[in-house]
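G., before I forget:
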Amino acid sequence: MHHHVATIKTNLIIFGLLMLLLVATVGAAELPLGPLNFPVAMLIAATKTVLIIFYFMHLTGTDKLTKTIVGTMFLWLVLMILMIMMDYLSRDWLQILGK
Amino acid sequence: MDTATMGHTDAAAGSALIPLLSHQFDDVEQQSYSSILGMWIFLATEVMFFGGLLTSFGIYRYLHPHEFALASHNLYMWWGFVNTIVLLTSSLTMALAVRASQLGRRTELVRLLLATMVLGTCFLGVKAIEYTTDYHEHLIPGLNFEVPEHQLGEVVERGLDPRMMQMFFVLYFFMTMLHAIHLIIGIGMLGVMAYLAHINWFSGGGAVQIEVGGLYWHFIDIVWVFLFPLLYLISGK
């Protein structure tokens, strides 16, 4: 905001990195990684998100309260996905008859 | 604080119909932070909204991986790829628009906002082409869904459930259409902002308003960053 104005160069570098990561996503999907395909795709998407949030959305330039809110937002998202998937992923672990 | 002093002068010089600083804030900086914070809180609710859909997608995909992979192969990956480039580029023009507003370059700001709108519209155009193709290929759940002929053999052979292939398209259309609705709202919002910047309506120069609008636009981009690999790149390998 009032702190400093990002240069055009910074913006272009971030854009270039995002393009590289996009190519990496498509490339990784073609690799025979088996069960690792999905986590790799999500890792690349998360990296893109970090770049966008910090450089395009200027999270570093905001106050602590906003940063806390953004952190909490992702915490709740991860909690939701983690808790629900824990249920589905663990259902077959115990062989209970008639389950 | 430069913007603040500048804004005050502007407001004093103009008719000051809209005060630069609303009375509930201590100073302009606190007011700016509140605007940014407010947008982030709204985005947090949006994250939970899209997050719920992504979670249900994750559950169905986990339970029916083969059906989802097979159904996903009917999408045209390169259209999704092109659209990702279009949307990431629109994020660049949006970031540059925020920069122009911070530097008080009004003409540049309006042009960059218009460029962002054009790119957003291109994205919707590509999506419309994809939806039309999906319609002709009988992939619309509930309306005309049929397992494509070349996949029938595999479905029968492996004992796959066609209803779960349909479920992939239910989630595909729900998420991409919800995303498109956000984009349409975003384009409208940028249109209003471009007009207001053009007539020099913003008493404080508009840097905060454009920044807040930018937050929303970048959020839409982030949603697509996740939707593209989830929907288009389900690898069968």
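Chain A touches chain B through 50 residues (CB under 8 Å). The mean pLDDT of chain A is 88.

More on Monday.
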